[in-house]
């Protein structure tokens, strides 16, 4: 299998290549590219590799610019130090999003995912990517909310959590700003990507990145600590613990 690495830090690229070969000696890293410009030039002049390992913030811009110049049909495993690009990454052929420093077990799991997808789609993962991109396109990307006499647009990846109170639903963003919505939690839940938002109980619908800490709680329950902090116990029932753990580790 042919793969390329797009990474502007030489030590990180060398470490990633060693980890790739440790995970699968059958992977041939045919090129290591350090910029948007060099990646575009290489992809225009060579056959498309089977798999790309791609950093996001490169020396001459975000790697997403490569997709604007080249029709990339191969799946991508993004390896980045930043977690704020996850949604855009999954709109650009991503099958996994690994945070630096990339742990060997996470890389192994990502490559196993690639193998499973390849087998499922008869060595062609493009069907999966197209399906995933369409699925993401169907999820709500922003909410139009009212602040005073004005309306503002809030991106879904800027939302920390939603909660129901006194027959109202409130939305809290990452800056701890509160907005009141005119939809039920169930209606909102259907509009969001289930890989990023989870209905932890009847009252709370939380974003993955808003979960700061998970504690054990009496009677086999779990207690969540959210960011921004809220002065209330967020409890996951015993019946919901298994599903929640599977969601957190997926």
UniProtKB/TrEMBL annotation:
<dbReference type="InterPro" id="IPR007492">
    <property type="entry name" value="LytTR_DNA-bd_dom"/>
</dbReference>
<feature type="modified residue" description="4-aspartylphosphate">
    <location>
        <position position="55"/>
    </location>
</feature>
<dbReference type="InterPro" id="IPR011006">
    <property type="entry name" value="CheY-like_superfamily"/>
</dbReference>
<dbReference type="Pfam" id="PF00072">
    <property type="entry name" value="Response_reg"/>
</dbReference>
<dbReference type="Pfam" id="PF04397">
    <property type="entry name" value="LytTR"/>
</dbReference>
<keyword id="KW-0597">Phosphoprotein</keyword>
<feature type="domain" description="Response regulatory">
    <location>
        <begin position="2"/>
        <end position="115"/>
    </location>
</feature>
<dbReference type="GO" id="GO:0003677">
    <property type="term" value="F:DNA binding"/>
</dbReference>
<dbReference type="InterPro" id="IPR001789">
    <property type="entry name" value="Sig_transdc_resp-reg_receiver"/>
</dbReference>
<keyword id="KW-0238">DNA-binding</keyword>
<feature type="domain" description="HTH LytTR-type">
    <location>
        <begin position="143"/>
        <end position="250"/>
    </location>
</feature>
<protein>
    <submittedName>
        <fullName>LytTR family DNA-binding domain-containing protein</fullName>
    </submittedName>
</protein>
<dbReference type="InterPro" id="IPR046947">
    <property type="entry name" value="LytR-like"/>
</dbReference>
């Amino acid at each position: 299998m042919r793969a390329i690495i797009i990474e502007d830090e030489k030590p990180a690229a060398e470490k990633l290549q060693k980890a790739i070969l440790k995970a699968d000696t059958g992977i041939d890293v045919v090129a290591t590219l350090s910029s948007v410009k060099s990646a575009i030039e290489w992809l225009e002049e060579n056959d498309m590799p089977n798999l790309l390992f791609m950093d996001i913030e490169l020396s001459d811009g975000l790697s997403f610019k490569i997709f604007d110049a080249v029709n990339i049909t191969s799946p991508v495993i993004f390896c980045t130090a930043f977690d704020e690009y996850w949604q855009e990454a999954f709109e650009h052929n991503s099958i996994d999003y690994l945070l630096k420093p990339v742990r060997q077990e996470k890389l192994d799991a990502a490559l196993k995912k690639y193998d499973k997808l390849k087998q499922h789609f008869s060595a062609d993962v493009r069907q999966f990517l197209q399906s995933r991109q369409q699925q993401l396109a169907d999820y709500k990307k922003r909410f139009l909310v009212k602040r005073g006499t004005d309306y503002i647009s809030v991106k879904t990846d800027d939302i920390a959590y939603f909660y129901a109170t006194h027959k109202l639903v409130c939305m809290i963003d990452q800056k701890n700003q509160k907005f009141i919505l005119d939809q039920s939690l169930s209606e909102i839940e259907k509009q969001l990507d289930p890989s990023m938002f989870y209905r932890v109980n009847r009252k709370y619908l939380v974003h993955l990145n808003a979960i700061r800490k998970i504690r054990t709680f009496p009677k086999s329950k779990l207690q969540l600590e959210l960011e921004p902090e809220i002065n209330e116990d967020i409890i996951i029932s015993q019946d919901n613990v298994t599903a929640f753990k599977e969601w957190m580790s997926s």
